[in-house]
Every structure is written in structure tokens, then in C-alpha cells.
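Continuing the series of single-chain predictions for the mutant panel. This is the parent chain; the variants come on the following pages.
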Amino acid sequence: MEIIVIFYALLILGPLLLSVILGIFSLVKPDHNSFDLFKYFLGTMSIILYPCYFLTESPKYNYCCADTAPFAFEHTTGLYALIILCISSYIISYSKLLVKFSSFPPIIEVLINSFLLIGFILNVVISFQLSEIYSLIAIGLGLIFLFELVENHRYFILNKKESGSQYRGVNQVLWQFLCLPIFTKVPIFLLFLLPVVIIFTTILVLFGQEPDALIRVFTDTYYHGFSQLNHECDDVICQDGDCYVCTVAATGNTAIVRYERMGIRNGRPIKCSRQLLVASAFEKLWSDKLPRTHRLFRSGYDAFGSWLQNNPSITRNTIISTLGYLFLKPFEWLFLLVLYTFYQKPENIIASRYLSVDQASVIEKTQGTRSCINPIEQIKINLK
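Parent structure:
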């Protein structure tokens, strides 16, 4: 089993690992460029396919009780645009090296280098936001951008013209800046990124994004590296596949919605209305008799339930809860009809829902028919 896991890990991470190894080799042996085309092919494939797969497969919205989105969906426009610009800069940079094109005008060269540096920084930030294998992938992608930044600098120094006298004004200043040693250039680049980010943010605002969208895309999330909304889940009770709608309905107006007793779910007390107990018993019957269709139902219902749990303005509204209770009444009667059809002692099944193991065992041991003593009263008698 361990060999199979290692094999699949190498298969998935192989292109990224090989690209990083070739990048390190290029730094150590800059004169050996036999693998340049293969290296850039692997690099391009890595910086495109890994992010596309992750952004496609990862959750899009924040749920307290399920896998949460690593990036706030409403703020991802700027993040996606930044990723596209970084990938484009990488492709343009190595294309220049492959076709032996001397250099672009200084302003273009500076922008390409800026987005290569942003690509490195962005992946480092993302590595802190994610966890486990995804964090390592982000670091690997960041190294690819960093290696290309160094390669671009070396190529510019080797092919620069003896003098930048053909440039004037800002281009002349930028040309002199590009001629600086790499260790001097990078810290200055970090300062140069500020106006680039300001211009980029201004464009995003024109397209309807908030000014701090590039920050909130990381912070407006749950349970990730830079998440700042974890407190919103403090009062959320995760139900692990129970009756979400009926649970909300059980908190309706007490003059209409009568709850029979308190129950236990996930170690926490909940109000149990007759409707909630009937729905839970019906679902147990459904899962026992038709497990495949029940799993299909749960997959969709859990997604709706997670959304419902994360909207306290709905779940804590007494009027909405009461209306939900009244809406579900016909379904409650239908569930009762099915339960009485399939079970000899349906009331025992209904009464055993949301009890501790000891209490539920008392229900299971009770004797009688449908007309027997109320199982809830039997519990009180037997547990005294």
C-alpha cells in the first residue's frame, strides 16, 4: 500500500519536482542549457495545470460544517487576474530566451520581472494559506517563478547593449536599474511593486472589486492560514447529516411549534419537536431500505444544510422557522404513514431519535404494540 501511495504521489508531483530540479541545475550550471526546452515545458505545465486543478476542485464557498474555501469567492477576481499575469510573464520571459531575442524595452522588462517576483511572493503567501501537500506545491511553483527571475536577469546582463544611450527619461533610469546586480535589484523591485499593486488595485476597483480585495480573498475565510472569520462558526452547531430544515422549524413560535423534549446531537442539547423526531425516523428507514437513493439525497441536502447553517439571519428568525414548520406539516403526516406501514412499533423508533445510547437502548427493550404506553414516558419510568 505504501508503494502505491508513493507511486501516485510521484505521478502527481513528478512534473513539478522535475521542473524544480532542472531549475536548480540551471542555477548551478548556467552554461549547460541542453534541457532548457524540456525545463520550460514542465514549468509551464506546472504553473498552469496545478492552479487550474486546485481552483476547480476546491470548495467555492465558506461553510462552518464542511470543507471550506481557501479563498473568498467574492474577492477572487483580483487573485485570478494576478495569477494570469504572472503566468503570462513567465511564458513571455522564457520565450525571449528560447528565440534568443535580445530584450524588450526597459519598461516591459521591468514589468515582466515584477510579475515574476509577484508570482514567487504570491505562491509563498498561498503556501501559508493552505496545508499539507498543497502548501508544498505552492512553494514549488514559487521556486519556478524565482528561478525564471534569475534566468531573465542573467540573460539581460549577457545581451545588454554596452550603453543605454538610445533610451531617454524614465526608460534610461529603468535600463540602469536593470543593469544592477541581482541581489541589489530584488530589494529595489520590492519597492517598485508598490505602484504596480496600486495601479492593479485601481483597475480592479473600476471592475467592481473592493480596494482591499487582494487581502480579503485570504482573510474572509474559515480555518485557513490567514482566516479571520473563524469566530462566525462559534455558535454554529454542525449537524453531521441530520434534519437541517426540521431543526430550524423546531425553533419556531412556541404557541404553534411544540417541542416534546430535549435531545442530544453531537454532544449538544437540541429542542426536539414531534416533526423533527418523525423526519429523523423516516430518514433512518429510508437509509436502511434504499441506501443508494438516500446517499444521493443527502449529497444535495447536506450542501443546502451547510448553507442554511451559515445564515443565522434565517435560522434564528422565529417567523421564518414557524412558516417552515407549517410548510413541513404535510410531509410529517406522509412520513408517519410510511413509518406506520413499515414498523410494528413506529412510536418506539420515533421516540429513540436524538437520545443517548443508554436511553435509546431502553426504547429498544420496551414491549408492546402501537397502542402501548408512550415510549417517552417509558423512558422516564425506566431511568428513575
